[in-house]
Amino acid sequence: MGRIFTLDLEGNVYSCKYCHTHLALFEDILSKRFLCKHGEAYLFDKVVNVMVGEKEERNMLTGMHTVVDIFCVGCGSIVGWKYEAAHEESQQYKVGKFILERFQVLGPNTWSHDDGSDVED
């Protein structure tokens, strides 16, 4: 396996909580009104520096979806998922979009303590 190259983003960046690899820009948030089993999640139009897992069917609050988990290329931590298909017509707007789970990422105004806890400015 060779060296991994990552994209560095400029602006208000969301990054991996564990290795600080850049993942997305604030400007690419489509919605902050999503939930995951660990709390808040944001819907993004695009993300960078992620690898995708296997496709699977998941029954979510809004119905059945085909998704792939997304993992940080820097450390391999799961950071969210990508919508591959939506079975309900009203949910088609999610297809091709990404969810970043807030407990897995640092936002533009968030930093991490040495003990792993997060603080927002």
Description:
The chain is mainly β. Strands 3-4-8-7-6-5 form a 6-stranded antiparallel sheet, with no helix packed on it. A 3-stranded antiparallel sheet has the order 2-1-9, with no helix packed on it. The chain is built from no helices and 11 strands. The mean pLDDT is 89. The radius of gyration is 14 Å and the shape is globular.
Number of helices: 0
Integer-rounded radius of gyration: 14 Å
Distance between the termini: 39 Å
Overall pLDDT metric:
89
Instruction: Please give the share of residues in helix.
Output: under 10%
Structure summary, number of beta strands: 11
Largest sheet: 6 strands, antiparallel
Order of helices and strands: EEEEEEEEEEE
The best one-word shape is globular
Structural class: mainly beta
What spatial order of strands do you see in the largest sheet? 3-4-8-7-6-5
Query: In what range is the share of β-strand residues?
Result: over 45%
Unreliable residue runs: none
Domain Yippee: 12-109
Organism: Linum trigynum
InterPro entries: Yippee (IPR034751), Yippee/Mis18/Cereblon (IPR004910), Yippee_fam (IPR039058)
Family: Belongs to the yippee family.
How are the SSEs placed, and which strands pair?
Elements: E1 13-16, E2 22-25, E3 29-36, E4 39-44, E5 50-60, E6 63-72, E7 78-86, E8 98-101, E9 105-106, E10 110-112, E11 118-120
List keywords for this structure.
121 residues; mainly beta; six-stranded antiparallel sheet; three-stranded antiparallel sheet; 0% helix
Gist of the model:
This protein is mostly beta strands and 121 residues long.
